[in-house]
Amino acid sequence: MLAATIMRPHLYTILLLLNFTFHAKSQTDDREFKKWQYFNVPSNEDTVYSYNLCDTNWIVYKKNKLLLTRQMGDTTDWEYLPFKTPTPKSYSKMEEFSGKKSFIKVNDGYLVAFWRGEFGASMFWFSDDGTSNYKIPGASAVQFISRDGEIFAINGLDHLNMSSGRILKISKVNDKWVASTYVELPFAPYTILLDSKNEFIVVMSNNLIRVNKNKRIKTILKTDFWQGLYPTSSVIEYDNVYIGMRKGIYQFNLRTKESKWLLPQ
Asked: Which residue ranges form the domains of the chain, and what is each CATH number?
């Protein structure tokens, strides 16, 4: 009787662990968007407009060699700075430390960008513990990316009838980080990634482009499908580029030029 009494807590613990493992695996499976349903990209204007009214925005990312997704606002696998950034002390300084935040680790700390679109933007260097910082003049970013040990960023604005952007190169000059224009872009960029040739693939407001190492731009997909769906992020696996956006995920094959529209099951 005593043995049975002792065993019950252990059995309960085992069942609890098994349930947790199954639940965690189910959550991961739910977020593996390659298991979603694949459709031809809709061309009906009313259908695409209905997507614009959807309140679900998907973010795509890689983790442990898996392609995963989460909804905007979901903090699953969220990456945080190891310190809290300052709070703006006045309205005139709002663009300095407020807005959408992106960052990248560098050898002497972090580069942190604050993006508020047409309302302002800024970029700062922070020390590893966040106690020291300085503003990088004329710089802003919606996303950072590193290539061959160098730091790049994209910025731009798609507002009213204006759409423009650029890729910045962020480098150190006299022990200070500075930004310079690497290449001007024809439209505002949303996301950037590297293909198998280590060339930039940029998701723009109405097309997908490649920027080679000679800074030559080539349009590889021209589409207005996602103009009102606001791409959030992109990942690549082999020749397939996946773009997270409102309502679903857009897949484009760099080799075959075939497009698909992915929706949750």
From this structure: 35-263 (2.120.10)
